[in-house]
């Protein structure tokens, strides 16, 4: 398996997002001192035969926890900050300031996610203040706020197949499914974990399948057609500490990747959940592995980042 490594120079990696336009371009965000104190950085990186090259570095006054590319503009990306703000950047411009700064949260912004629906310019932000906001990037205030969670919201992700639908993972131990047109209440709530739910992702092939990762060290898959009272479709055990992020492969229907506070990245084949099938385990990091993303353009390419100031590009053998 081919490996490329990049040292972030004292920036603890928090998230990875691969460009939806350029095959070898991706973003990494993080902060000094694990994002607790100090500045944050957005790094635009490019993988090449010579290694991983830094194309641009943009700084913010607080740690950055997540990033998401604009699906309609190849140079635009939003970042989530520890000071409760969101930044919209244009990496094609020569200056180092964001195009716009959004303020709609009372605490740290933990995730951002741009809509994948063609013609839809909206993006989501999730926060430790328990609120999910829906933004039109042209407006200074949220279009809508979703306030049903009772704990920190760590992750909100748009469905890639059902316009206007998104899922959220929270410290209140729940996974919620939402219709963006109705912010009064969620559509469904799942309580299948014994602990905080830190991450969720939608299958790119099965439109009703949502995968979650939790502090209880488990990965679970939920068929939202079955309803909240139904058992998970599968449960994957193997991590020895909290599962920080889960990602469904865009190229292989049965493949899921996960990263964890146990310093590992694991690849799972969910067609064999009874065997809890970990088909690959990578333990080359020396700190929490936080960021994780598949490359949409290159089958089997997975990129991760960790608090050991390292970004790794992997080419999986699947």
What is the strand tally?
Answer: 28
Rg value:
18 Å
SSE sequence, one letter per element: EEEEEEEEEEEEEEEEEEEEEEEEEEEE
Termini distance? 10 Å
Fraction of residues in H or I helices: under 10%
Shape: globular
Secondary-structure blueprint:
Layout: E1 3-7, E2 12-18, E3 25-31, E4 40-48, E5 51-60, E6 64-69, E7 76-81, E8 85-90, E9 100-103, E10 109-114, E11 123-127, E12 132-135, E13 144-146, E14 153-158, E15 165-170, E16 175-179, E17 188-190, E18 197-202, E19 209-214, E20 218-223, E21 234-237, E22 243-248, E23 255-260, E24 265-269, E25 278-282, E26 289-294, E27 301-306, E28 310-315
Antiparallel strand pairs: 1-28, 2-3, 3-4, 4-5, 6-7, 7-8, 8-9, 10-11, 11-12, 12-13, 14-15, 15-16, 16-17, 18-19, 19-20, 20-21, 22-23, 23-24, 24-25, 26-27, 27-28
Summarize the structure in short.
The chain has strands spanning 3-7, 12-18, 25-31, 40-48, 51-60, 64-69, 76-81, 85-90, 100-103, 109-114, 123-127, 132-135, 144-146, 153-158, 165-170, 175-179, 188-190, 197-202, 209-214, 218-223, 234-237, 243-248, 255-260, 265-269, 278-282, 289-294, 301-306, 310-315. The chain has 318 residues and is mostly beta strands. The N and C termini lie close together (10 Å).
What does this structure look like?
With 318 residues, this protein is an all-beta fold. Helix content is 0%, strand content 50%. It contains no helices and 28 strands. It has strands spanning 3-7, 12-18, 25-31, 40-48, 51-60, 64-69, 76-81, 85-90, 100-103, 109-114, 123-127, 132-135, 144-146, 153-158, 165-170, 175-179, 188-190, 197-202, 209-214, 218-223, 234-237, 243-248, 255-260, 265-269, 278-282, 289-294, 301-306, 310-315. The strands form seven sheets. A four-stranded antiparallel sheet has the order 1-28-27-26, with no helix packed on it. The chain is globular, with a radius of gyration of 18 Å. The mean pLDDT is 95.
């Amino acid at each position: 398996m081919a490996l490329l490594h990049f040292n972030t120079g004292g920036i603890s990696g928090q998230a990875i997002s691969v460009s939806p336009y350029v095959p070898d371009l991706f973003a990494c965000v993080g902060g000094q001192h694990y994002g607790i104190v100090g500045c944050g950085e957005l790094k635009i990186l490019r993988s090449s035969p010579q290694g991983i090259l830094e194309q641009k570095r943009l700084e913010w006054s607080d740690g950055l926890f997540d990033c998401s590319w604009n699906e309609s503009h190849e140079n635009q990306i939003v970042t989530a900050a520890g000071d409760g703000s969101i930044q919209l950047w244009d990496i094609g411009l020569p200056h180092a300031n964001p195009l716009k700064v959004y303020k709609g949260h009372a605490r740290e912004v933990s995730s951002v996610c741009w809509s994948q629906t063609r013609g839809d310019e909206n993006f989501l932000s999730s926060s430790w203040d328990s609120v999910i906001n829906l933004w039109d990037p042209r407006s200074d205030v949220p279009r809508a706020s979703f306030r049903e969670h009772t704990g920190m919201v760590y992750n909100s992700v748009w469905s890639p197949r059902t316009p206007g639908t998104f899922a959220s993972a929270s410290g209140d131990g729940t996974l919620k499914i939402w219709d963006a047109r109705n912010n009064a209440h969620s559509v469904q709530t799942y309580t299948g974990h014994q602990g905080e739910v830190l991450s969720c992702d939608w299958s790119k092939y099965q439109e009703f399948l949502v995968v979650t990762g939790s502090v209880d060290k488990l990965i679970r898959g939920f068929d939202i057609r079955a309803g909240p009272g139904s058992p998970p479709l599968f449960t994957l055990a193997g991590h020895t500490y909290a599962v920080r992020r889960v990602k469904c492969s865009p190229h292989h229907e049965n493949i899921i990747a996960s990263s964890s506070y146990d310093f590992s990245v694991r690849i799972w084949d969910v067609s064999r959940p009874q065997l809890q099938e970990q088909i690959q385990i990578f333990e080359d990091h020396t700190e929490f592995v936080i960021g994780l993303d598949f490359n949409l353009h290159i089958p089997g390419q997975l990129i991760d980042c960790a608090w050991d100031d390292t970004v790794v590009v992997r080419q999986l053998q699947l």
